[in-house]
Design goal:
Blueprint: H1 3-13, H2 19-31, E1 46-50, E2 76-79, E3 90-94, H3 95-100, E4 115-119, E5 139-142, E6 149-150, E7 154-158, E8 171-176, H4 185-193, E9 200-202, H5 215-219, E10 222-228, H6 239-247, E11 251-255, H7 259-262, E12 272-273, H8 280-289, H9 292-297, E13 305-309, H10 313-323, H11 336-341
Parallel strand pairs: 1-2, 1-3, 3-4, 4-5, 5-6, 8-9, 8-10, 10-11, 11-12
Antiparallel strand pairs: 7-13
Helix pairs in contact: 1-2
Subcellular location: Golgi apparatus, Golgi stack membrane; Membrane
Family: Belongs to the glycosyltransferase 10 family.
Membrane topology: Single-pass type II membrane protein; Single-pass membrane protein
Length: 351
């Protein structure tokens, strides 16, 4: 029995002379749920329909995918077969495909208690056409920590190690960039910093494209990596930090949300923030004059943690299975645009 039914019982409790009976029954049902990370007591698997596969990726959603491989979530089924619309418990809509094929959205929910999830990993700056979805979605699934279903680009997981191996360094600073626009903040900072220090630039926007298998081995040769986000938003901390820098074994020089926001996810001594310096000349001097002992200290976190990337869409969608028992059924976002564009006032370092 799902949390939707629990909510209904609680509402009945406030209206009926049998309120105490209903409340106690609801409490007993709630106590029968396994906490997040396991499956709830259900007669059949939780079914999740992926309306459009993100970026047309072939996810090979064959049966109980969340109970196999590295997902290990029993009682949860993913499918992209739209004929399941009338029986799916949850329907997930990835925004990129949604905004391109708006007419293909189902007219209404086909099953009582069915919940619709809006999914996106893009920042508000790069997300368009939100105004037309008022009152459409029950839950949001994004990189924001205040999402109903939080899907970060990466996390640090506990991992004790006596020895930390740092890749051998032969170069100083590099940047990998696919889409370069001169008006972006990151482009402005790069131009200013490059006046004071040599920066090797790779990627589609440069004359040095990298094959996927070449990315990490190339970056690992550098002491510092410019993990500059394409836009600055609450919690918008992408693979530029997690994969390109931390996983590659180099020190990230970050440009994105304030330092305090980064420190909610990684230790403060694991990165350098551009806002720690009064100018790009000061930052360049800091990078050029750092001694070996100071450099090694930026890797102390690796004695306690290791990097886990969330770059697999199967795994991301299986996160719904974990969160489902604790999600509020019947909730609706009156304005998706208001929620996504108006970030929380408590953004670290903000007003």
């Amino acid at each position: 029995m799902t949390s939707c039914i629990l909510l209904a019982l609680k509402r009945l409790a406030s209206l009926s002379v049998l309120g105490v009976l209903f409340w106690n029954l609801g409490f007993l049902l709630q106590s029968s749920h396994i906490p997040a990370g396991g499956a709830s007591t259900r007669d059949k698997p939780l079914s999740i329909l992926i309306w459009d596969l993100p970026f047309n990726h072939n996810l090979n959603l064959s049966g109980h995918i969340c109970a196999t491989g590295r997902h290990h979530k029993e009682g949860c089924l993913l499918t992209s077969n739209r004929s399941w619309l009338d029986q799916a418990d949850v329907v997930a809509f990835h925004h990129r495909e949604l905004q391109r094929n708006r007419s293909r959205l189902p007219r209404a929910k086909k099953k009582p208690g069915q919940n619709w999830v809006w999914v996106s990993l893009e920042s508000p700056t790069n997300t368009k056409d939100l105004a037309g979805w008022n009152g459409t979605f029950n839950w949001v699934m994004t990189y924001r920590q205040d999402s109903d279903i939080f899907i970060p680009y990466g996390v640090l997981v506990p991992h004790l190690s006596d020895k930390v191996d740092i890749p051998k360094k032969s170069h100083l600073v590099c940047w990998v960039i696919s889409n370069y626009h001169r008006t972006q903040k990151r482009a402005e900072l790069y131009r200013e910093l490059s006046r004071h220090i040599k920066i090797d630039v790779y990627g589609k926007a440069s004359k040095k494209p990298l094959c996927p298998a070449c990315l990490l081995p190339t970056i690992s040769q550098y002491k510092f990596y410019l993990a500059f986000e394409n836009s600055i938003h609450q919690d918008y901390i992408t693979e530029k930090l997690w994969r390109n820098a931390l996983l590659a074994g180099t020190i990230p020089v970050v440009m994105g949300p304030p330092r305090a926001n980064y420190e909610q996810l990684i230790p403060g001594e694991a990165f350098i923030h551009v806002e720690d310096f009064g100018s790009m000349q000061e930052l360049a001097t800091f990078l050029l004059t750092m001694n070996d002992s100071h450099y090694q200290s930026f890797f102390s976190w690796r004695h306690r943690y290791t990097v886990k990337l969330y770059d697999n869409w199967q795994e991301r969608f299986c996160t719904i299975c974990d969160r489902y028992p604790s999600l509020l059924c019947g909730k609706v976002y009156p304005s998706l645009e208001d929620w996504f564009q108006n970030e929380r006032s408590g953004l670290p370092g903000g007003p």
